[in-house]
Amino acid sequence: MTRRRMIYEGKAKILYEGPEPGTLVQYFKDDATAFNAEKKAVLDGKGVLNNRISEFMMTRLAGVGIPNHFIKRLNMREQLIKKVEIIPLEVIVRNVAAGTMSKRLGVEEGTQLPRAIVEFCLKNDELGDPLVSEEHIAAFNWASPQEMDELIALSLRVNDFMSGLFAGVGIKLVDFKLEFGRHFENDVQRTILADEISPDSCRLWDLETNEKLDKDRFRRDLGGVTEAYAEVARRLGIIKESAQGAEIVSFNGAPK
Fold first, then answer.
1. Which residue from 18, 15, 22 is spatially nearest to 184, judged by alpha carbons?
2. What is the pLDDT of residues 218-236, one digit of tens each?
3. Which one of 67, 92, 93, 233 counts the least CB within 10 Å of its CB?
4. For the chain, what is the mean pLDDT?
């Protein structure tokens, strides 16, 4: 397709004007960043893997009634998505203590939490995406009370579905980040899932060994980042092994 006007460039993705009103093209870069972009690298093939994994997850979530912005994959790096007004919050769902939670609270990483914990961060790179409370969100009107109810309910539904899906392929869903947007259609506003779901936005550990299969491999200089992402894709059935090496496949098993 013809490259269109760039709307926004983030750390890992670029948004372009879509071919039809109300649509955007989301392009997945190979760029990797951590610690609010203080650490940077280019990891060959990461964008292709994240595009396919996010397509897989968004398609499966839509299949169980969770509305999201994904329309279709255009090629190896681009998706056609619905244009939304992003709610300026990151919703973090935690099943196991890890990362900043362990540092903030002094809880040993790997500790199973008694229930899923939902946290909110303000989307603001200059401030380092600070943790905020529901009272902050209400006071500054970043989201309405109805939207907050929807964000929590949808996030927990995503957690239930993804926890089971990953457990079925030997992966523990430790925690993940979601973003949501306001989608307007025929004067009706809906809150829908946006952004991406990939090893960039999830902590994924091998169920038996706790080996990290996510962006922590980049954050912590463990190496093998794209190999870990490819392993997630392989377990989900997006990649199959052949005599010539790994092949990315479509969901019906045909090489793509």
1. 22
2. 999 999 999 999 999 999 9
3. 67
4. 93
Which numeric CATH code is attached to 6-84+235-248? 3.30.200.20
- % of the chain at pLDDT higher than 70: 93
Single out the residue of 212, 209, 195, 253 nearest to residue 12, CA to CA. 195
Per residue in 17-65, pLDDT (tens digit) is: 999 999 999 999 999 998 877 899 999 999 999 999 999 999 999 999 9
CB 64 within 8 A of CB 161: yes
Domain boundaries, given as residue ranges, for the chain: 6-84+235-248, 85-206
Separation in Å, CA 244 to CA 46, 229, 234, 241, 247? 20, 19, 15, 8, 8
85-206 CATH fold: D-amino Acid Aminotransferase; Chain A, domain 1 (3.30.470)
Nearest to 204 by CA among 196, 195, 191, 213: 213
